[in-house]
Amino acid sequence: MDANITFDEKRTYTDWGLKVTTVRIGLPAPVVKKVEIPGRDGALDLTEWAGRVNYSKREVEIGLVGFGDHESWHQQVSRIAAYLHGAKRKMTLDSEPDHYYLGRFEIDTVKENEYVHEYSIAGTVEPFKYECISSVEPWKWDSFNFETGVIREYGGIRVDGEKVLIIPGTSMPVVPVIVTDSEMEVRFREAAYLLGEGENRVYGIQLLQGENELTFIGTGTVSVDYRGGTL
Q1: CA–CA separation, 166 and 163 (whole Å)
Q2: CB contact at 8 A, 192 and 186
Q3: SS3 149
Q4: What pLDDT is attached to residue 143?
Q5: What are phi and psi of 194, to 5 degrees?
Q6: 81 with 43: CB under 8 angstroms?
C-alpha cells in the first residue's frame, strides 16, 4: 500500500493518486533573546527568562509524483488547488498517525512529459505537533503508539468532596479547558481557583512537561480538555 499524507480529510495517494517522493519537516528555530548591557562582558541571555525556550514556526516541504495526460493533469491541479492552496489544514503522516501538524500550505506543479507530473507542497506550520486525540474525544486504538503514547481520558470525572487528577504534560505548555456542571474549586501548585459552571480557562493553570496535579474540591462532574504537543 502506498503511503499517504493526509490534509484534514484528503489523502495524497488514496484521493489524489500521488506518490510521496520526499518529505522534509524542519525543526523550529529557538527564539534567542540577548541584551547588551553597558559595562558587562558579553550579552545577557534572556532566552529562557520565562522558564522555557520559545520557538518560531517550522517549514514543511513535500515532493510528490503523479501519472496521466495533460488533460487529467489540469483537472487534478484545479481540484487539489481548490482544496489545499493557501488553506490552513491539519497534516498527518501515515508514519506518525498519533500526531498532526497545523499550518498553511501552498502547491506548485510541473509536467515535463506526457506521462509524469510532479508536485511540491510547501507549508509553514506551528512549532509543536499536536496529539490527534484530545483527552475528551473518543479513543482510537488503531493510531495509538504503545511505546510513547499516553492514554488520556479526562472526561466526565465525578467529584464528591475531593478528586486528584494527574496529567502527564508534554513539552508544549497548555492551558486546558475545564468544564464543570457545578461550581467547584481547583488547586494547582499551591494556588486555588474557583470554577464556574460551564467552560473555564484558567491562565494560572499552565500544564508543563512532567506530572501536573490538579485537585478538584466540590460536588459534580468535571472534564479537562487537554491536547498535548511535542517537537
Answers
A1: 10
A2: yes
A3: coil
A4: 56
A5: -90, 130
A6: no
Reported as type and span, the H/E element at residue 70 is: helix 70-84
Question: Which residues make Cβ contacts (< 8 Å) with residue 186, sequence separation at least 6?
Answer: 178, 192, 193, 195, 202, 205, 214, 215, 216, 217
Q: Please give the DSSP secondary-structure letter assigned to residue 75.
A: H
5 vs 12: CA distance, rounded Å: 6
Cell numbers at 109, concatenated: 506543479
Model pLDDT for residues 8-25, shown as the tens digit of each residue: 999 999 999 999 999 999
Which tens digits make up the pLDDT trace of 15-66?
A: 999 999 999 999 999 888 878 788 777 777 777 777 788 899 999 999 999 9
**Residues 214 and 191 sit within 8 Å (Cβ to Cβ):** no
pLDDT value at position 183? Answer: 95
Residue 127 burial (CB count, 10 A): 19
pLDDT at 91 over 90: yes
Please state, in angstroms and rounded to a whole number, the distance separating the CA atoms of residues 174 and 170. 9
Helix, strand, coil percentages, rounded to 5, for the chain: 10, 50, 45
d(CA 144, CA 1): 20
Note the pTM of the prediction, 2 decimals. Answer: 0.86
| φ and ψ of 213, to 5 deg | -105, 120
> Of 198, 226, 207, nearest to 136 (Cα)?
226
